[in-house]
């Protein structure tokens, strides 16, 4: 038991590995219990057992093993990590469980295997089980087969791959062990159940007895399709659904499943390929040429036997095919012809797609052999050609088939048509595009008119089949000229086809198993057509359905082009119309006259040939009117133009009549159904007049109209031939000019270029220079559409002429043809005909191909030449090649038939002489250009061998081969190359050169493909092996190509393909796939195809760099066609033959230029997020290294490839540092222009820059740092925040550079670190810099410590992370550093902290050694700085951090909240600077960093006024200085001398709270607002807010903006929260604006923004919808009134003017907004009489001047509303009225008065008011500003003055008296106060004078000075903070000397008040309120009035009508007048106060 107790104590996992079986048994039991208890499949518990599960199943003790198996089964079932153990556990089960005698063990083993399959690990399980079949122990084999059988039975053939099982079946049937054979039989039956007869061929060679037994078993099987009974985890839902259905008694899934399951297996796939070439008889090639037919027959029979093998191995069958083809074509013995045809059939069936390369050679021969009449020969040939058709595409053999259709022999014609019909059956709408259908239909239409009935029948069948396949819409355009009988016949055939089609569809279901590619059902083998004939029609129901969908479905998909379905209608309509045109017979002149007289006035016809020109002119006018009024259907066009052509006709001598005539022709062509017959009558005359100076334009218009009616191609041809049959050069040149223009308007489609070219050549040879110029211009236009191939026609012109042509082409280079503007609407099909095809544009590109005169060179390729090329002597071979090159050069363009040349050239591609290989490649390049797209048919036999050459060891040969392949691909497109297995076979070769070149080529070409090539998947296994190739370059290229493969095949397919890899490889490849997935580019988008359409469907897309304008016009004018090939970015498969060939060189150079001009950073949506995700998920390496290793650089390169321009990337990763400098220069240039891109790729840019930090080259480093400075400046402007990922992969490496020995670099790095704090919180920077202090480099340590000091100083203690204590302890360690600079830096940093934090520092740094402590104390003493308040800036920290949390991660940029925090930052900085410059620490002032000094003017963004840096600083003190002069009251409380300290501490707290007001978090904001509200409500505390008003208001309106933009739009936020926040904000504001002294501190810019925010809020309709919304809006009304009344009147008036100006300028601004701003202005105007004296008029007039400059009177009058101009006039009028002529003295701040009409306007007003009676104006002025009764007489005046002087004399009221006197003097400037002063003492007189001057200065300066918008030129204040200078200058405001006594007196008062307080002047009641106490109620009483008025405004706003304000105005002025009566008693005041309170509630 002792032992037991030992292991009992062990943990479970150790027990499971214990050597004692009991321990293990116990361990397994406990594990089982644990496994059953764990509920979460992702629990970490599972991972503990990962390594043990194999031991569970392979335990050596049978009993223990059983328990282990049970536990393992539960584990596999429940653990999400179980999949990782699949391989080892299943192999353990196979080797150690299946051989156990216990049945239970075996059962559990099988269960475990099945469970692994259920958790999606089927492939691995199957692999292990198949390995088990090779085991020597039959028990194991039986168990493996049984497991496979069960798996198949339960999971179905979709999950269990049958192919590998079927391969081993025959071997199992031969086993000596009966058990194995029996089990094999069972699995064979199971397999048969799933795939039926497909299993027969692979088993045909097993023992006949066994086969018979199997047959018997197979017959017994039920016929229904089997269904899986068990599902993978991912399919479990499906299982549940199935069960529900079964319980409902339905089996609805049956049909669907059937379709799902069956297509899995292709019998062909299951077969072993047989190699037959080596088995051919040795003398085969001799025998086949033998003279005796018997010998030839023997040879053929030998082949026939070999090709009966159902699957043949790929190889070079060229010679064999050539021999068979010769027999078919040339042999006289028809039996042998049939035999050879059978051999070809066998080859085609056995090789399938691999035979495609030979199809082109054989098809013409077979078709021509159809002349044989013998049925067996015909049948053999039919079978052969049908089998061959399945190996290729109709496209590839179309040329040959079309050529044979014109054969004279009727049998050939018949059989060709039948072949076409059969071929069409295999097509779908997408594989039978219009480009292909058009030529076939044209050929077949000839056949339906053939004399031989069998030919006609065959053609009808073919056309019927086409109709069935692609639908009527597609075929009808080609059947326009077919009469009804024939059309009905075609339709009848089409209906019959349905049956065959139906069978085909039915067949498809059975045959689908052969080939999983849909739409190719018939490529299943030779069966193809034959089978169809013998299959009896199965269930008719579904069959009828199938063809219907087949016919109707795909066409829809193929072309969603006809807009709004009108396409087809348009077609029919137009076609019908065209038939009329063509058919219109030529009418006799009599008939014409008769028809014309029916529609024209009689006089008109009589006067046509009058001899008097005036009569003729009158007649033409009548004619024109009649034509204009005629209806289209009734207009007899031909008759009318005949009338016009009637004598004098086109020989008309009077130009006016002629012009009319031509105009009428144009009208008729536009308005009538104008036919070509009519056109021919007039065109001659038009061409004759086109050169006429006066009538030429009319002639051109008429021609254009005719071109619209009769199509440009026809008109152009007629016009050109007419022009060039004349001798008149003017006519010729003008015709050419007209045509150039017409081509641009109509597009190029359908033009017969051949005809033009001959005419153009004639024109070029003309003696008249104008004709030559016009011809060259026309060529330029044609070049736009045709491309460079156009030049080939003119190569034999004289060099001088050729150079002119080239110059014209050069001009056009790179331009894209304009979108056609004419000829579209009427003939919609001109677009649709050409462009609907999904495959290839049958348009301009095609025309060019057709027009090139192609030479037939096959006769020149003689057998001698071929033998020369194959000669043993290399010199003769070279001669042969030279000859070929000569032949091609001479022919320029050749036909596709080149005889034996391909085989001969193919041989030379592997010539031992490399020079000849290169020569051959050059010839092949020429060949591609010369043959154009027809080179397609040679891709398989010549193109693929070129690829083989890419494996050559010589670099230059490879380069030549690549150029050739590109030249070919340019012509053929990529489809041909990727079809079949040829390319994958090449990739399979283990040649590193071949692999890297081929992969490089694919990586370049694949991105341009729009459609996915089906056979691309075949290359994937080889691509994976390349990923692990020994050669690094191959691996690199394979990685580069990976994303492009994935772009076409998708991640799932690619990942699935890894299944066959070894586990280690698989993991690596999957990791790479994940990486590639992130960089996967999007497929080329449709715009490319769109752009290629506007040319009237002309040029291949290649010639048009997809330019914006074209795309735009496309959308509106041209229906877009899905045109996959055409849109390939290189126009790959367009047919513009040599166009591309010639274009290659220019294309590349052009491309480079284009590239460099394009953006350097491509914005990949979510690219950055994906990269961050990958790094987190460890899919890529984390950017963390001591020195960068290659894999980091590679990784960065890969990541950059998708978002950085290729050329820039090459520079960035170049080995030479100069290229890095270049790259940096480019990046600097593009920084501003590509902000989005830079931010999108920021992580990559920063990573790349970190690599540069490791370079040794200083110039790169300097450049990189320069770039970084600019970059971070940009980022802070953009208000971007670095992500954690960006910061952590960049900052540590930047900090390394802080320790550079070069001073310049260190400085730069520090500057960058400084700027980074604006985009990344300083608190997060701190730990990085702290890490830098641990460096071995002492310079780095010192610099980092200094930087830490700066951070603490700038941002306060909050930055110290993780805690100030820990941080300071670490810093303090460095005081003992051995390096002096480090010690000093550490000490300085701690001193800085001491200055911020005081004595607490000593607690925080912990215990220091005595020496260190003494050094520190010494240093602190020396710095002798008393601790100042914590820098205000630390507040910046908080908002920044909260910001980064609250803002969405992906809203990192410019979220409104950010917007605020950054603006606040600027404010804090400003305040900090102000605080420092005010406190007298010069050192502190110098510490302000340069970057922070520039932001002052940003706060006050009041543009347009003179900026003056820091006037406010001075002014605070100024007004304090003057105050005592006026109120010598001793009652002011004394303030402790430490007030400054206390105040600044409060200040920092207030700053912090204010910063939280703008927080993105609503609760934070509300809390902050509550705190501020408390301060504002307590009178004694409210003054603490002084100096912070602007800051507070900025924070508030930012919060308003945040609510408006973000919170209101946020669905998740409770709207109650928002209302609560609004209430707090508005409540706070009302509190603030009731304290007048604080309200007046708000500056103009801030007020402007605040008003903007409040008015926007009032207009926010979303608020109205909320419950308490109305209440909020009412409160805002009240607040606006408060703001208007209580703010500094100058500032608010200025703010409103600027706001009005902005709102009128902004297009987005609503008219309601401007309206409300104006209403505020009217309110201000009404307050003016009270406030005029406190307003700085100069500034207001400057604002009005700027306003009038921006909005002159004319512009204002254009406004929709008249209010702006009325508002402005009212304001100016009121000012004039109040100020009188003096107003003109206040224009001092305006530099150039002539810029606006202000001065003139004021003068006009003054003049006007002078004309009015004086008394009236007096009355106006007195109304609000004075207390004197309106009708006061002279005596009263004297009494009044006496009263004033009495006040001045009394102690209490002296100040009030002075103010009243000042007001009085100001109003009555001529009043005489001399008598009152005469009697008083000198001191009293000077006291009064001085007092008045001070008041004047205050009044004038008050509005002017505190705001930083500029200073009146009268007040020469500088920004020097020396009070004396300011005082002196103010003293001189009146221009008179002031004696020293004034200053002495003031000095006394100053001393008295010294140090008293530093609050601003506004803290005391301002003068205005002292001057006019009774005016207070005025304001109060008008509050509720304005309140009601604003709500009236709101109602009017809702009713969308302007309220008439006049009545309100009169009301208000009345109120004011009464309220300003001087007898304001206390009761009255009380009542009013009550009223205000109630209104506020």
Summarize this structure briefly.
With 2041 residues, the protein is an all-alpha fold.
Explain the overall architecture.
This protein is mainly alpha-helical. The protein contains 108 helices and no strands. Helix 28 (484-511) crosses helix 30 (540-558), helix 38 crosses helix 40 (729-746) and helix 51 packs across helix 61 (1137-1157). The protein is globular. It starts with a helix and ends with a helix.
Distance between the termini: 89 Å
Question: Which word captures the global form?
Answer: globular
Q: In oligomeric terms, what are we looking at?
A: single chain
Low-confidence stretches: 250-263, 499-583, 825-847, 1086-1155, 1426-1461, 1472-1543, 1815-1832, 1903-1937, 1956-1983, 2000-2024
- Give the DSSP E fraction (strand runs of 2 or more residues): under 5%
The biggest beta sheet is recorded as: none
Q: How many helices?
A: 108
Write the layout of secondary structure elements.
Elements: H1 2-8, H2 12-16, H3 21-37, H4 45-48, H5 53-57, H6 62-78, H7 86-97, H8 103-132, H9 138-155, H10 162-173, H11 178-195, H12 200-203, H13 208-220, H14 236-247, H15 253-261, H16 267-270, H17 284-288, H18 293-307, H19 318-330, H20 334-351, H21 356-369, H22 375-389, H23 394-405, H24 410-425, H25 434-448, H26 453-470, H27 472-475, H28 484-511, H29 527-534, H30 540-558, H31 566-583, H32 589-599, H33 602-607, H34 613-629, H35 637-645, H36 655-671, H37 676-689, H38 696-710, H39 712-725, H40 729-746, H41 753-764, H42 769-786, H43 799-812, H44 828-835, H45 844-851, H46 863-869, H47 874-891, H48 901-909, H49 914-931, H50 939-949, H51 955-972, H52 975-978, H53 982-988, H54 992-1005, H55 1020-1027, H56 1032-1057, H57 1063-1079, H58 1087-1092, H59 1108-1117, H60 1124-1127, H61 1137-1157, H62 1167-1176, H63 1190-1201, H64 1206-1212, H65 1217-1231, H66 1235-1240, H67 1242-1253, H68 1258-1277, H69 1284-1288, H70 1291-1296, H71 1303-1316, H72 1322-1332, H73 1338-1355, H74 1364-1373, H75 1380-1397, H76 1400-1405, H77 1410-1423, H78 1434-1446, H79 1456-1478, H80 1482-1487, ...
């Amino acid at each position: 038991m002792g032992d037991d107790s030992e292991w009992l104590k062990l943990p479970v996992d150790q027990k499971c590995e214990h050597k004692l079986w009991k321990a293990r048994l116990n361990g397994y039991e406990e594990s089982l219990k644990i496994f059953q208890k764990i509920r979460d499949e992702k629990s970490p518990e599972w991972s503990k057992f990962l390594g043990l599960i194999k031991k569970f199943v392979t335990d050596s003790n049978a009993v223990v093993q059983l328990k282990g198996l049970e536990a393992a089964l539960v584990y596999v079932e429940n653990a999400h990590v179980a999949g990782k153990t699949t391989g080892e556990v299943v192999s353990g089960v196979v080797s150690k469980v299946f051989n156990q005698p216990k049945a239970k063990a075996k059962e559990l083993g099988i269960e475990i295997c099945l469970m692994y399959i259920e958790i999606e690990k089927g492939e691995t399980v199957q692999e292990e089980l198949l390995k088990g079949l090779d085991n020597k122990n039959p028990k194991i084999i039986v168990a493996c087969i049984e497991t496979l059988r069960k798996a198949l039975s339960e999971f179905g053939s979709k999950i269990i791959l049958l192919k590998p099982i079927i391969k081993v079946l025959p071997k199992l049937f031969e086993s000596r062990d009966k058990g194995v054979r029996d089990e094999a039989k069972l699995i064979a039956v199971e397999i048969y159940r799933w795939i039926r007869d497909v299993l027969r061929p692979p088993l045909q060679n097993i023992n006949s007895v066994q086969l018979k037994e199997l047959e018997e078993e197979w017959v017994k099987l039920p016929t229904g399709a089997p269904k899986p009974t068990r599902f993978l985890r991912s399919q479990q839902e499906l299982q549940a659904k199935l069960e529900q259905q079964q319980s409902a008694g339905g089996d609805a899934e049956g049909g669907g499943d059937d379709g799902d399951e069956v297509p899995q297996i292709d019998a062909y796939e299951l077969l072993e390929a047989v190699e037959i070439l080596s088995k051919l008889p040795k003398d085969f090639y001799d025998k086949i040429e033998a003279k005796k037919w018997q010998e030839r027959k023997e040879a053929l029979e030998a082949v026939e036997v070999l090709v009966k093998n159902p699957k043949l191995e790929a190889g070079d069958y060229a010679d064999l095919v050539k021999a068979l083809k010769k027999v078919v074509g040339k042999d006289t013995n028809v039996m042998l012809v049939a035999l050879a045809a059978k051999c070809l059939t066998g080859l085609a069936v056995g090789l399938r797609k691999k035979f495609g390369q030979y199809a082109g050679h054989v098809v013409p021969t077979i078709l021509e052999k159809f002349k044989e009449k013998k049925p067996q020969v015909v049948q053999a040939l039919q079978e052969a050609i049908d089998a061959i058709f399945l190996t290729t595409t109709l496209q590839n053999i179309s040329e040959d088939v079309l050529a044979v259709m014109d054969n004279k022999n009727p049998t050939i014609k018949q059989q060709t048509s039948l072949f076409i019909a059969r071929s069409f059956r295999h097509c779908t709408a997408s594989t039978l595009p219009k480009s292909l259908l058009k030529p076939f239909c044209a050929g077949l239409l000839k056949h339906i008119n053939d004399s031989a009935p069998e030919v006609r029948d065959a053609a009808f069948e073919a056309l019927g089949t086409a109709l069935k396949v692609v639908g009527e819409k597609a075929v009808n355009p080609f059947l326009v000229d077919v009469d009804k009988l024939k059309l009905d016949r075609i339709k009848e055939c089409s209906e019959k086809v349905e049956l065959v089609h139906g069978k085909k569809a039915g067949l498809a279901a059975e045959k689908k198993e052969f080939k999983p590619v849909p739409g190719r059902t018939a490529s299943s083998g030779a069966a193809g057509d034959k089978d169809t004939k013998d299959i009896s029609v199965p269930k008719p129901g579904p069959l009828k359905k199938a063809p219907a969908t087949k016919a109707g479905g795909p066409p829809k998909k193929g072309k969603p082009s006809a807009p709004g379905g009108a396409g087809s209608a348009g077609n029919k309509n137009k076609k019908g119309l065209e038939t009329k045109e063509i058919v219109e017979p030529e009418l006799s002149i009599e008939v014409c006259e008769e028809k014309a007289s029916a529609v024209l006035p009689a006089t008109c016809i009589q006067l046509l040939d009058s001899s008097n020109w005036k009569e003729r002119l009158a007649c033409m006018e009548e004619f024109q009117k009649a034509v204009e009024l005629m209806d289209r259907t009734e207009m007899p066009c031909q008759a009318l133009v005949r009338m016009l052509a009637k004598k004098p006709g086109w020989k008309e001598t009077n130009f006016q009549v002629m012009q009319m005539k031509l105009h009428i022709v144009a009208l008729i062509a536009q308005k009538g159904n104008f036919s070509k017959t009519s056109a021919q009558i007039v065109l001659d005359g038009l061409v004759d007049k086109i050169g006429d100076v006066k009538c030429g334009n009319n002639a051109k218009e008429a021609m254009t109209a005719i071109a619209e009616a009769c199509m440009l191609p026809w008109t152009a041809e007629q016009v050109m031939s007419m022009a060039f049959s004349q001798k008149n050069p003017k006519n010729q040149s003008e015709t050419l000019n007209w045509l150039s223009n017409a081509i641009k308007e109509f597009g190029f489609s359908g033009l017969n270029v051949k005809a033009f070219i001959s005419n153009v050549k004639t024109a070029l040879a003309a003696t008249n220079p104008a004709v030559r110029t016009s011809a060259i211009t026309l060529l330029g236009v044609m070049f736009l559409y045709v491309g460079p191939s156009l030049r080939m026609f003119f190569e034999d012109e004289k060099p001088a002429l050729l150079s002119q042509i080239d110059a014209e082409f050069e001009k056009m280079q790179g331009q894209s043809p304009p979108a056609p503007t004419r000829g579209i609407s009427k003939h919609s099909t001109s677009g649709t005909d050409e462009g609907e095809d999904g495959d290839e544009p049958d348009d301009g590109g095609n025309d060019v191909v057709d027009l090139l005169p192609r030479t037939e060179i096959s006769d020149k390729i003689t057998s001698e030449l071929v033998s020369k090329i194959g000669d043993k002597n290399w010199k003769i071979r070279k001669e042969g090649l030279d000859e070929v090159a000569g032949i091609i050069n001479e022919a320029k363009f050749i036909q596709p038939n080149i005889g034996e040349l391909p085989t001969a050239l193919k041989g030379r591609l592997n010539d031992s002489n490399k020079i000849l290989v290169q020569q051959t490649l050059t010839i092949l390049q020429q060949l591609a250009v010369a043959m154009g797209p027809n080179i397609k048919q040679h891709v398989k036999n010549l193109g693929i061998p070129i690829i083989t050459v890419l494996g050559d060891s010589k670099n230059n040969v490879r380069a030549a081969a690549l150029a050739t392949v590109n030249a070919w691909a340019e012509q053929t497109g990529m489809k041909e190359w990727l079809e079949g297995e040829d390319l994958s076979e090449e990739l399979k070769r283990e040649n590193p050169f071949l692999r890297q070149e081929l992969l490089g080529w694919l990586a370049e070409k694949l991105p341009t493909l729009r459609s996915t090539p089906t056979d691309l998947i075949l290359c994937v296994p080889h691509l994976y092996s390349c990923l692990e190739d020994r050669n690094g370059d191959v691996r690199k290229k394979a990685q580069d190509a990976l994303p492009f493969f994935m772009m076409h095949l998708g991640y799932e397919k690619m990942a699935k393909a890894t299944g066959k890899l070894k586990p280690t490889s698989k993991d690596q490849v999957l990791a790479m796939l994940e990486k590639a997935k992130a960089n996967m580019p999007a497929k080329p988008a449709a715009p490319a195809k769109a752009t290629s359409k506007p040319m009237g469907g002309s040029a291949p897309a290649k010639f048009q760099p997809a330019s914006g304008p074209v795309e735009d016009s496309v959308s509106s004018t041209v229906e877009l066609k899905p045109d996959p090939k055409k849109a390939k970015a290189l126009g790959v498969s367009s047919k513009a033959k040599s166009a591309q060939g010639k274009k290659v060189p220019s294309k590349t150079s052009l491309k480079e230029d284009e590239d460099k001009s394009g953006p350097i950073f491509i914005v990949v949506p979510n690219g950055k997020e994906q990269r961050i995700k990958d790094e987190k998920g460890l899919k890529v390496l984390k950017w963390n290294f001591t020195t960068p290793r290659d894999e980091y650089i590679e990784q960065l390169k890969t990541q950059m490839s998708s978002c950085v321009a290729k050329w820039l990337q090459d520079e960035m990763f170049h080995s030479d540092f100069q290229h890095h400098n270049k790259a940096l220069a480019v990046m600097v240039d593009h920084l501003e222009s590509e902000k989005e891109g830079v931010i999108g790729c920021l992580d990559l840019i920063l990573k790349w820059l970190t690599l540069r930090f490791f370079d040794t080259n200083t110039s790169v480093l300097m450049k990189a740092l320069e770039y970084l400075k600019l970059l971070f400046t940009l980022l802070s402007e953009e208000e971007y925040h670095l992500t954690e990922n960006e910061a952590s992969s960049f900052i540590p490496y930047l900090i390394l550079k802080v320790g550079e020995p070069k001073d310049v670099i260190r400085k730069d790095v520090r500057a960058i670190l400084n700027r980074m704090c604006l985009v990344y919180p300083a608190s997060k920077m701190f730990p990085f810099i702290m890490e830098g202090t641990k460096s071995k480099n002492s310079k780095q340590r010192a610099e980092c410590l200094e930087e830490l000091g700066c951070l603490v100083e700038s941002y306060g203690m909050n930055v110290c992370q993780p805690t100030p204590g820990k941080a300071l302890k670490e810093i303090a360690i460095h005081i003992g550093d051995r390096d002096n600079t480090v010690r000093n830096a550490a000490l300085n940093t701690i001193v800085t902290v001491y200055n911020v934090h005081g004595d607490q520092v000593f607690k925080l740094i912990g215990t220091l050694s005595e020496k260190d402590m003494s050094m520190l104390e010494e240093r602190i003493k020396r710095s002798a700085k008393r601790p100042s308040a914590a820098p205000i800036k630390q507040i910046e920290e908080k908002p920044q951090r909260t910001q980064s949390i609250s803002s969405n991660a992906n809203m990192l940029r410019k979220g409104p909240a950010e917007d605020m925090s950054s603006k606040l930052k600027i404010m804090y900085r400003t305040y900090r600077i102000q605080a420092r410059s005010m406190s007298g620490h010069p050192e502190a002032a110098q510490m302000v960093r340069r970057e922070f000094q520039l932001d002052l003017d940003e706060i006050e963004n009041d543009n347009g006024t003179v900026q003056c840096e820091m006037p406010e600083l001075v002014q605070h003190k100024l007004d304090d200085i003057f105050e005592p002069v006026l109120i010598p009251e001793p009652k002011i409380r004394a303030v402790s001398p430490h007030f400054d300290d206390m105040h600044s501490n409060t200040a920092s707290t207030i700053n912090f709270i204010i910063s939280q007001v703008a927080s993105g978090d609503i609760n934070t904001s509300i809390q902050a607002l509550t705190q501020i509200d408390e301060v504002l409500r307590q009178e004694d505390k409210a003054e603490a807010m002084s100096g912070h008003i602007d800051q507070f208001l900025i924070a508030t309106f930012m919060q308003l903006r945040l609510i408006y933009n973000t919170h209101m739009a946020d669905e998740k936020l409770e709207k109650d929260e928002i209302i609560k926040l609004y209430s707090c904000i508005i409540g706070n504001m009302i509190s603030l604006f009731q304290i007048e002294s604080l309200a007046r501190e708000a500056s103009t810019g801030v007020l402007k923004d605040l008003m903007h925010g409040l008015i926007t809020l009032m207009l926010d309709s979303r608020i109205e919808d909320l419950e308490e919304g109305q209440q909020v809006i009412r409160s805002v009304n009240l607040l606006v009134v408060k703001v208007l009344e209580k703010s500094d009147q100058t500032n608010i008036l200025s703010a409103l003017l600027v706001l009005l100006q902005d709102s009128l300028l902004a297009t987005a601004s609503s008219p309601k907004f401007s309206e409300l701003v104006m209403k505020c202005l009217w309110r201000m105007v009404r307050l003016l009489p009270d406030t005029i004296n406190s307003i700085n008029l100069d500034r207001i007039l400057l604002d009005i001047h700027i306003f009038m400059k921006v909005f002159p009177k004319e512009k204002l009058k254009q406004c929709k509303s008249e209010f702006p101009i009325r508002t402005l006039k009212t304001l100016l009028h009121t000012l004039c009225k109040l100020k009188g002529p003096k107003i003109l003295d206040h224009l001092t701040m305006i530099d150039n008065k002539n810029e606006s009409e202000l001065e003139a306007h004021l003068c006009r007003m003054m003049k006007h008011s002078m004309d009015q009676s004086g008394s009236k104006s007096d009355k106006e002025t007195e109304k609000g500003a004075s207390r004197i009764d309106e009708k006061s007489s002279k005596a009263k005046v004297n009494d009044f003055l006496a009263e004033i002087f009495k006040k001045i004399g009394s102690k209490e009221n002296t100040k009030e008296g002075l103010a009243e006197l000042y007001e009085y003097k100001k109003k009555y400037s001529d009043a005489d106060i001399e008598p009152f002063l005469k009697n008083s003492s000198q001191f009293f007189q000077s006291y009064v004078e001085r007092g008045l001057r001070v008041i004047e200065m205050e009044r004038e300066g008050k509005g002017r000075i505190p705001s930083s918008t500029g200073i009146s030129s009268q007040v020469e204040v500088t920004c020097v903070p020396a009070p004396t200078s300011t005082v002196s200058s103010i003293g001189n405001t009146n221009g008179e000397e002031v004696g020293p006594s004034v200053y002495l007196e003031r000095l006394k008062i100053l001393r008295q008040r010294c140090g008293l307080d530093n609050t601003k002047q506004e803290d005391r009641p301002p003068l205005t309120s002292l001057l006019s106490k009774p005016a207070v109620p005025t304001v109060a009483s008008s509050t509720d009035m304005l309140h009601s008025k604003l709500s009236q405004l709101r109602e009017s706003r809702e009713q969308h009508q302007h309220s008439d304000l006049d009545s309100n105005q009169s009301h208000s002025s009345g109120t004011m007048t009464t309220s300003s009566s001087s007898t304001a008693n206390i009761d009255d005041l009380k009542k009013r106060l009550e009223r205000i309170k109630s209104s506020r509630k």
